[in-house]
Amino acid sequence: MKIAILPGDGIGPEIMAQAVKVLNVLGEQFDMETADVGGAGYAAHGHPLPPATLALAKSADAVLFGAVGDFKYDSLERSLRPEQAILGLRKELGLFANLRPAILYPELAGASTLKPEVVSGLDILIIRELTGDVYFGKPRGVRECPDGPFKGEREGFDTMRYAEPEIRRIAHVAFQAAQKRGKRVTSVDKANVLETFQFWRDIVTDVHKEYPDIELDHMYVDNAAMQLVRAPKKFDVMVTGNLFGDILSDCAAMLTGSIGMLPSASLDASNKGLYEPSHGSAPDIAGKGIANPLATILSAAMMLRFSFGKTEQADRIENAVKKVLAQGLRTGDIFEAGTTRVGTEEMGNAVVKAL
Amino acid sequence: MKIAILPGDGIGPEIMAQAVKVLNVLGEQFDMETADVGGAGYAAHGHPLPPATLALAKSADAVLFGAVGDFKYDSLERSLRPEQAILGLRKELGLFANLRPAILYPELAGASTLKPEVVSGLDILIIRELTGDVYFGKPRGVRECPDGPFKGEREGFDTMRYAEPEIRRIAHVAFQAAQKRGKRVTSVDKANVLETFQFWRDIVTDVHKEYPDIELDHMYVDNAAMQLVRAPKKFDVMVTGNLFGDILSDCAAMLTGSIGMLPSASLDASNKGLYEPSHGSAPDIAGKGIANPLATILSAAMMLRFSFGKTEQADRIENAVKKVLAQGLRTGDIFEAGTTRVGTEEMGNAVVKAL
Ligand SMILES: CC(C)[C@H](C(=O)O)[C@@H](O)C(=O)O
Ligand SMILES: CC(C)[C@H](C(=O)O)[C@@H](O)C(=O)O
């Protein structure tokens, strides 16, 4: 069980240290190796995804990722900016299936900006395709506009595209995930406007024939954004493309009000995966010892479950996290009157103790 | 002042009748002519945007639009479906600037799924570019995948594109709108991933030089979706592309919980416009006389303001709407205990009386 540990920037190293501590007390044999990524990769090796880091990630059975990005790197040209590391890892490792649970722990219902009755008990799984769509489609660039009313003017352009096998495999992931949950899948598209997503809808409908036990419905992305705000508990599994998934998964995460609690997994065809918290690198609070390490710790649990098949150990970690919440321990981001405010390390230690 | 009246499908005719009634008591001379559009256009003339309807819309000074769409037309091929009418009108009339206010009337704060302190007094203006982007970009279609790992497979594809003049003109609309409001513009893009939107950001930044009185910030679309849920009152004017605007404007509308109250305007370069409620055709309640006509009535007010320069008449209508709300009159969609439930026509009559 070789794990590439990529702490990254901002609060990345602090929260990663807690996840590593948790992994170390499980009584399993992990081979963990650490490398620089993001701004830290650029600072030390001149590239956000240094060759040695990519090689390590490729050779490992799973990648545990902190977060990348810092104000310091904002003025770099795009190909050198920290977030290129994450795009590069997804593409190079073939991590096409991004699983993002949006779960609201009952103890944290107050943290949401939504009324408690609308969100308490929320448990959605958003499955976002991660290596296709307009994110990677070519051709793309800035050119002289070739036709239409603005012919001859400069224009920026990108290509949105999805091939049939790309849609099929992510649809299978969604239907199989639904079989282990509420047995309902909502496929989100924009079939009324986009050829790519009419095609998406046709293929998802076809794959659905293999899953008669699952209820499938199709929803336009604008309506999905509305329904997430109006009645998010109606969803079970949502599956969508890379761009819509980027927007909707962040929206769903924010519904919980506690994005510091939400892990994510990005998987390839054989369940090798990259695991990372859903939140960012929060450079404004880096080094202060106040960041919430729970999303990273829960990402480690997802790793045990999906990449290593260690369901029991994953359950142990998730239960330990529930226990510290029940004990009233809170980092600043989820603190409320009547609970006990703790720092990053205390929170990590409390999880270790609960194990 | 020639107005094309296009009631459309579902609740369209009922709500339009109330808006027409309101226009008729203002003491102005309007030349109103009605035509079929959407499913009604298809049913009567075999096309959602019949030639006579398009000709009327082109010859009019403004278009007042109800809503289109009905279950009955779901199985038609895409080019004949009701929503093609709205895409066709936007493109044919050059309506590139979509203005969608998301306003929460204090009396209706309870209708939101968000906590009152998060949304009460909300007043955002979303400006969505409406004739470009991946909505209309060519080439598009289903083809054999020409390259990459899925070469030879079928793929759906579309072209995302924005030419410089398209971005410039919508940026001007946003900055000028902000001058009449809170003097802040948030431009929403995905410059970290898309060439189209790095170009967008560069051009918006350049146009901003002409508006030193306006504060401009740039935000990624995923973050914008989160901030709309987290702290929507921080926004003043938001400007974005066609696809992101489709998603974010519906999300923002739903924050208010009273989408039956929200009008919209779609303008061309000389303030000719199409005005329509932000909600849909609600075929499930069509013909029952219970739909909320206020968004359509407020759309008529926007028409008076933007296309006819009749600021005073627009104010009169908006004040009349505030008055009926203060009187406690509510259609079913915004009804709460302690208020008086009224139907579509009673609501229209109440606005007329308040005038
Ligand atoms: C950093 C950025 C490129 C990335 C994305 O858009 O995919 C991020 O927003 C995410 O969701 O992981
Ligand atoms: C009906 C559809 C084509 C349309 C759009 O996507 O623009 C609608 O969602 C809107 O926002 O007016």
What does this molecule look like?
The structure is a homodimer of 355-residue chains. Chain A has helices spanning 12-24, 39-45, 51-59, 83-93, 116-119, 164-179, 195-208, 221-230, 242-256, 294-306, 311-326, 344-354; strands at residues 2-8, 31-34, 62-67, 97-103, 123-129, 141-144, 154-163, 184-189, 215-220, 237-240, 263-267, 273-277, 329-330, 340-341. With 355 residues, chain A is α/β, with parallel strands linked by helices. Chain A has two domains: 1-98 and 262-355, Isopropylmalate Dehydrogenase (3-Layer(aba) Sandwich), CATH 3.40.718.10; 113-256, Isopropylmalate Dehydrogenase. In chain A, strand 8 (184-189), helix 7 (195-208) and strand 9 form a beta-alpha-beta unit. The longest helix of chain A has 16 residues, at 164-179. The first copy, chain A, is globular. The interface between A and B is large, with 65 and 65 residues. Strand 7 of chain A pairs antiparallel with strand 7 of chain B, so a sheet runs across the interface. One 3-isopropylmalic acid (IPM) sits between chains A (83, 86-87, 246) and B (192-193, 222).
